[in-house]
Amino acid sequence: MAILADFSPSVEPGGLDEAYIDVTGCDIFGSPHQIAVKIKERIRKELDLIASVGIASCKVVAKIASDLSKPDGLIEVAAGKEKQFLAPLPINRLPGVGSKTEEALKTLGITTIGQLAALPAETARRILGKSGMVLYRHANGIDNRKLEPSGETKSISRETTFAQDTRDLRVIDAILRYLCERVSAELRQENKQADALANAALDAASEEEKGD
Asked: Would you name the residues annotated as active-site residues?
């Protein structure tokens, strides 16, 4: 993260070994491609690690490009070519498409990101639901999320661990409601609200309950 911060002040950690970096206005270090090469070289030289890089105009396409370039590659998706890049990829390459969603889409003959993107918007809404429209936009290479630099609150969550595993849906439902109430209370205190991705995650969880 320190190496990334040397190239841009806008860095969003995505875990211990992932991050998004916005190099807009960082031309002093070269083009985005040149910056990526320099970052990879420094990580290799200073940390003896390899890094994969995806370059794109939005987060979801950059993430997919980075995953495809692993373990030590670099893929750049030119602006305006997002849909073309995504189209042939398996639907499960799209972040947010878990096994349940993938199975449901495959029953409709949708196996690639391009097939999902090609659906009429109303058809996609009927299939995925209002919250699932995030997946539809992402399939079309549209992702308006801004980077959240380190230091900003990225998420609010609550969790618990059962002393023993349980399949009692009444117990699970009660605990979920309690945890949701705690998260909602903190959101109100912070004057924040859940975004569409959070709603999509909740919808996916509901679908999994139905499947199980």
From this structure: 18
